[in-house]
Each structure stands twice: as structure tokens, then as C-alpha cells.
């Protein structure tokens, strides 16, 4: 281990020799055009260490130069080394205020921040950044004044994100016709859920647009912030929260030519920062539950039911009717959505966006790290 002192704060950290050698950014080790390492990790001796007296500070302590026992010389930016430590990473995540958990009163107070006109979105890159920032913060945004067609809905989404292709297609248009083995393809009540719980990598973002609803009524949509609900469960019952972050809940989708299955917790947390990174809930797609012993079942079901009480409470649910001309875009890893039963003929269109594309856009715009 090497002790490194910060030139301003005088803080001292200890870093592993091999890790330090692995993070050399000289032109022999790092391709500055592709931003990729250039060497085989096995090229570094396992017992790598600085030569005796082989390190010194340059440029008033801002640069650390190390002469290694394999003959390599590395110059390190001291701020760079300090910024890469796990404690710094955890601290930055803990202090992050990018996301605003919401219930009904909070989201209604902030609705003006999450509505965007299609013409403004097309005309201004600054509006695109505001749109993605709002989606990161609240998990839901609206694009207004979109002509009611699948083609125009696709254009509105592709202005910012590429569209994800699944067995539903890229853009999907649906009614109550049973085109797929899914409750969404019906007129019945559809409770709060996330899509694709049966995929190994569920869509990160979903978009929906009601193209028409004639000769009937009902069909109000509703949205629930799963992040708020999870934090509320953690406050009320930390043990129940812990159970839902650990128990693997199986999901399954079966129709002719398709059989998808995946198991994961209902609340997924980052193992390093403990930050909530994905909410996963779909009572319709739950498969046979065989991932924990029977002796633990009741404790899980009690936790599950307590969580559902929060999710289904009136204060958590934002209910409204989608009309032609408004596209709702929401974070499928955070926000639950559902629909009340309806009569008549209702036509919806929509699509998915991969999580990695969503986050890539946010990084390119400088919104997240």
C-alpha cells in the first residue's frame, strides 16, 4: 500500500500498488482517443511496487510520479486518485439531490416542471436537457401537442432517445384485441406495475400515447412513484424493506414462440452505495414462487402486502385520463403505472427505451455522472 497526501487538504489515503499501476494514464497504458486501456492485466507483475525511493511529488504536490519495479514510470494527477476512492463515490451518491421522491401532493405542485411542448423539444437542445433532467428527477414527463399518430409519437421519442426493439416490436399500437398474452391487451382494470419484469434487462423508459377513445368511457391512467413508496416502507418497517431488497421474485411471460423468465428483488439496491436503482413490481407476471424456504414465506408476504398498501394508497396514486395529443414518458425502473377498466374502443401506441441509452443521454448532457 502507498500513502498519498493531498496537496490542499493534507488528507492521507492508502492505495493498493496494483490498483495504482492499473490506473496509469500514460500513452503506453491508455488510449486517449478511445478512452480505453491498452495493456493486458497479466502484463503487470502481481508483486508490482515502487522502486526504493521511487516516488515523488511534482507541480507543487498536484502530480505524483512513481517509478515501478517493472521499469515503468507513471505520472498521476493527485485529484484524480482521490476522486476514484470508494468513500468519495459513496459520499457523492449519498449527497445526490437529483431525484425527488413524490406522492400526489408533491407531484401536483411540480407538474409545471414536467410538461414540454413537442415544438419546443424539437427546436431547442436546452429544452431537451430540461426534459431529460425532469425525467431523472421525477421519473415522469409529458410531451404535449403531439399529433395523434404512431409516427408522430415515434418522432417525439426519437428526438431524444433511440427506440428499443422487443417481441412487441419497436413502436407498438394496441387495443383490447388479444394480440399478446398480456392483461394490457384487454379492457379490465390493470393495477400498478412495471413492465418487463420477466426480461433480464427490463426497459428503462416507456412512452404511452392515447390515440383515440370513442363510444365509451373510463380508462383513466394512474402513476405511482416507486422510489417514494420504497423509502416510505424503509421508514415504517426497515426489516420489510430489507426483505424486499433481497428476496428473488420470479417473473414469467409465455405465449406462442416466446418464453421469458427472470428473478430479481422487488427493490434493487446498488451493492456499493445502497442507493435504490430499480423498482420491479408486476403481480400479473409473477411466476411460481420457489426461491425461498417455506419457513420464510409468511415474512415475505407480510412485507409484500405492507408495501402494496403504500403503493395502492390514494395519496401515492396520481390519476388522470390520457387524451390524444399528450405522450407520457416514464422511468420503468422507478414509476409504476396502471389503468382503470374502460368501455368503448380505445387505441394506444407506445414504445420502450433501453436503460443504458437513457442513462447515456443523461451523461452526455452532463446531468448524471
TrEMBL record:
Arranged from A to Z, the UniProt key words for this protein are: Carnitine biosynthesis, Dioxygenase, Iron, Metal-binding, Oxidoreductase
Which one Pfam family would you cite for this protein? GBBH-like_N
Source domain of life is: Eukaryota
Catalysed reaction equations from the record: N(6),N(6),N(6)-trimethyl-L-lysine + 2-oxoglutarate + O2 = (3S)-3-hydroxy-N(6),N(6),N(6)-trimethyl-L-lysine + succinate + CO2
**Annotated SUPFAM superfamilies:** Clavaminate synthase-like
Occurrences of domain Gamma-butyrobetaine hydroxylase-like N-terminal (ranges):
7-79
Protein's pathway: Amine and polyamine biosynthesis; carnitine biosynthesis
Residues annotated as domain TauD/TfdA-like: 115-352
**Alphabetized GO MF terms:** iron ion binding; trimethyllysine dioxygenase activity
One GO BP annotation here? Answer: carnitine biosynthetic process
Q: Output the InterPro entries linked to this UniProt entry.
A: AlphaKG_dependent_hydroxylases, GBBH-like_N, GBBH-like_N_sf, TauD-like_sf, TauD/TfdA-like, Trimethyllysine_dOase
Cofactor(s) the protein requires to work = Fe(2+); L-ascorbate
Where are the annotated coiled coils located?
none
Could you confirm whether the keyword Coiled coil appears in this record? no
Please tell me one Gene Ontology term that the record gives under cellular component: mitochondrion
Q: What is its EC number?
A: 1.14.11.8
Q: Which residues cross the membrane?
A: none
According to its UniProt entry, what is the function of this protein? Converts trimethyllysine (TML) into hydroxytrimethyllysine (HTML).
Family stated for the protein in its record: Belongs to the gamma-BBH/TMLD family.
- Protein name (database record): Trimethyllysine dioxygenase, mitochondrial
What is the organism of origin for this protein?
A: Stomoxys calcitrans (Stable fly)
Amino acid at each position: 500500500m502507498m500513502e498519498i497526501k493531498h496537496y490542499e487538504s493534507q488528507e492521507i489515503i492508502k492505495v493498493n500498488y496494483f490498483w495504482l499501476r492499473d490506473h496509469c494514464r500514460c500513452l503506453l497504458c491508455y488510449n486517449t482517443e478511445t478512452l480505453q486501456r491498452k495493456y493486458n492485466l497479466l502484463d503487470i507483475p502481481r508483486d508490482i511496487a515502487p522502486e526504493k525511493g521511487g516516488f515523488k511529488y511534482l507541480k507543487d504536490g498536484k502530480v505524483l510520479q512513481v517509478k515501478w519495479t517493472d521499469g515503468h514510470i507513471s505520472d498521476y494527477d493527485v485529484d484524480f486518485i482521490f476522486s476514484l476512492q470508494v468513500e468519495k463515490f459513496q459520499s457523492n451518491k449519498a449527497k445526490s439531490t437529483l431525484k425527488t421522491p413524490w406522492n400526489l401532493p408533491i407531484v401536483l405542485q411540480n407538474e409545471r416542471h414536467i410538461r414540454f411542448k413537442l415544438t419546443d423539444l424539437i427546436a431547442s437542445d436546452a429544452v431537451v436537457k430540461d426534459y431529460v433532467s425532469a425525467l431523472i428527477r421525477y421519473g415522469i414527463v409529458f410531451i404535449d401537442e403531439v399529433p395523434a399518430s404512431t409516427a408522430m409519437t415515434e418522432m417525439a421519442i426519437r428526438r431524444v432517445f433511440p427506440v428499443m426493439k422487443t417481441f412487441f416490436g419497436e413502436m407498438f399500437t394496441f387495443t383490447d384485441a388479444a394480440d399478446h398474452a398480456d392483461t394490457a391487451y384487454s379492457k379490465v382494470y390493470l393495477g400498478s406495475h412495471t413492465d418487463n419484469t420477466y426480461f433480464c434487462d427490463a426497459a428503462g423508459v416507456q412512452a404511452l400515447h392515447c390515440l383515440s377513445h370513442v363510444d365509451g368511457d373510463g380508462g383513466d391512467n394512474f402513476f405511482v412513484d416507486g422510489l417514494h413508496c420504497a423509502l416510505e416502507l424503509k421508514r415504517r418497517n426497515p426489516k420489510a424493506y430489507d426483505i424486499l431488497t433481497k428476496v428473488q421474485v420470479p417473473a414469467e411471460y409465455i405465449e406462442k414462440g416466446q418464453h421469458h423468465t427472470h428473478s430479481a428483488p422487488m427493490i434493487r439496491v446498488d451493492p456499493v452505495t445502497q442507493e435504490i436503482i430499480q423498482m420491479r413490481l408486476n403481480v400479473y407476471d409473477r411466476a411460481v414462487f420457489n426461491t425461498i424456504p417455506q419457513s420464510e414465506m409468511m415474512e415475505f408476504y407480510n412485507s409484500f402486502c405492507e408495501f402494496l398498501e403504500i403503493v395502492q394508497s390514494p395519496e401515492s396514486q396520481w390519476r388522470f385520463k390520457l387524451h390524444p395529443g399528450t405522450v407520457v414518458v416514464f422511468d420503468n425502473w422507478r414509476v409504476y403505472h396502471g389503468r382503470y377498466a374502460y368501455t368503448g374502443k380505445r387505441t394506444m401506441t407506445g414504445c420502450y427505451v433501453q436503460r443504458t441509452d437513457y442513462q447515456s443521454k443523461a451523461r452526455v448532457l452532463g446531468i448524471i455522472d
